[in-house]
Amino acid sequence: IVVKFCASVKMSTIEKLSIQGIRSFGSNSEDVQTITFSSPVTLILGENGCGKTTIIECLKYGLTGEVPPGGDHGRSFVHDPKIFNQAGTLGQIKLEVSNLQGKRISVCRSMKISNKRGKYSFETLDATMNYIDGKAGGSATHSISKRCVDVDVAMCQFMGVSKAIINNVLFCHQENSSWPLDESKKLKDKFDAIFGITEFNKTIERIIKMRKEEAENLKVKEANLGLLVHLKQEMDDKSLTLKKAQEKCAAIELECQRCDDEMKPIDARLAEIRNVEYEVGKHQAKKVEIETEQKNCQEQILALSSNIKVPYEGSREELEQEISDFGQKMLEKRQHRNVLDKKVNTLRQEEKTLQKNFTDLDKRRILLMQQRQKEQECISKRAEQLKTLCQQLGITLTEDLEFQPESVPGVLEKIENSLLNKECSITESVAQTDKDDSERQREIDTQRVELTKVEEGIVAHEKQKTLNEKELTSITKEIAEIETSARRIKILSENIERLMKMMDEMNSKCNQETMRADIAENKARILKLQEQFRELDERLTKLNMMSKLTAEITLKQKELEKKELDVKRVKGKHAENFKKLLSRPVEFNYKRAMQLCSEKLRDNIKELNGKSNKLQLEQQSCEIKRKNLKAELLKLEKELEESKEKFTKHVMLQHTRIR
């Protein structure tokens, strides 16, 4: 595995990786492994199964938070808890990276495998991002957890690389490395995700929608502007009419003032006349009051005289004396009545206190009766409980405890004595059982020790047995091989003897020199044929390579044609929109053109918003002015009406005076 870094060009880099409890990396604190990536190249070497792929998987998980494929939904990604017979294991990945601006960030992701009812389940615990300040000596200034922000999206944004590029290009897993040879639909989806075509299409559609909305808003604003212009014209017309009305009002006010000056002496004379009339009215009212009082007194005198049956014949002094005596008697009677009233009140109060005492005594009597019933019930319950207890303890009762409560203490003493005796016997039995249990436990422990020894011996015997069986099988194989080799040796020796005889016969029959020349020629021919075979083999390999390359080129050409067709289709589909949007033909670099167009549209929108805000402010100011002018107009109209009324009154008064 080679991890490259470029020192000359600024780019996002991975600086450090810490792994704990992932696959073959241990889950204890002392098993933490840290890798610092050096610039420009970091080379990772190792045997199969030592954890090279795990490092790439950890890098991918640290950046995207995705579990590698074939990991049983993360259960085989974390260190296996069955190795040390644990209920669960914790895994942690810490990754430190820096972006284009030289800012550093470290992300810490924790996960857990736990055993729930015999099934292992994978669970992501927490993911925190720590922003590291380079000036402060590499200390983390602040941290954000996954509850506040989507850590996967934040890491991709910080690195400046999309999630699809990290998954499919930078840290593509070896199981998914053949995705360029997938079906066309899947391949198109992958390329769309890598190059962000779907997002690009969505942005174009969003821009078109925004443009339509802004065009509609602009139409509305233009309509509002026309309305404001109309309102302004109306306001100008009304202001002219108002000026004319004000001039008329000023002339009318001058006329009214002149009339008021003429009316002042007349008003003064009228006020004097009104005062005189008011005084005359007062005197007449007093006269009427006095007359009515006189009439009432005469009526009262007549009524009193009619009520007197027998007129008093004595003198006035005697009458006064009689009246004073009658008053004295009435006072004495009233005093006597007051004394009697006081006595009645005291008697009523005494009656109330007695009634209250009676009710209190009645209540106490009822309460005492209830208490007596409860006590009787308690005594009967106690007697029953004591009877049952005595029956359980085997104590004989001769008295009736319900009607003879004085015998209860003696019964209680008997019960206590029997209970003490039973407690003693229970303690003795408990001690005996404890002793028996301890002896049995010792015996069990000794038997367990012997059992373990026996099991160990059985295991050792089984191991020895398996070893012996293996040795036996190997020895039998060797014996069989030796036997087969001996048979082959016999056959070969027989063949050699036969060949030697044939060779002797051939030597006697043929010439050796001619044979040697033929052999040399055959060897040379064989060498030439071998060279030709090698050349043909090389040509074949080259042809195979060429055929593979041509097949790949044809595939690529087909894919290119499909992509060009898709691009043409997209261009044809959105050609009118592009023309409307961009107002010029674009053959390449659509992204840049769209960015420029979106920036222009944003500037136009900002300008339109500014204009609309200004127009709104002007409209508000015009509305305020219009309201003020309306209020002033109403005031002036009221004043006009009042002045008209005054003028009409004044004219009427003058007419009446002239008449």
TrEMBL record:
Species for this entry: Bactrocera dorsalis
Record's keyword annotation contains Zinc: yes
Keywords: Chromosome, Coiled coil, Metal-binding, Nucleus, Zinc
Protein localization: Chromosome; Nucleus
GO biological processes: chromosome organization involved in meiotic cell cycle; double-strand break repair; telomere maintenance via recombination; telomere maintenance via telomerase
Protein name: DNA repair protein RAD50
Domain Rad50/SbcC-type AAA, chain residue ranges per copy: 16-257
Keyword tRNA-binding annotated: no
Family named by the database record: Belongs to the SMC family. RAD50 subfamily.
InterPro entries reported in the protein's UniProt record: P-loop_NTPase, Rad50/SbcC_AAA
PANTHER family named among the record's database cross-references: DNA REPAIR PROTEIN RAD50 (PTHR18867:SF12), RAD50 (PTHR18867)
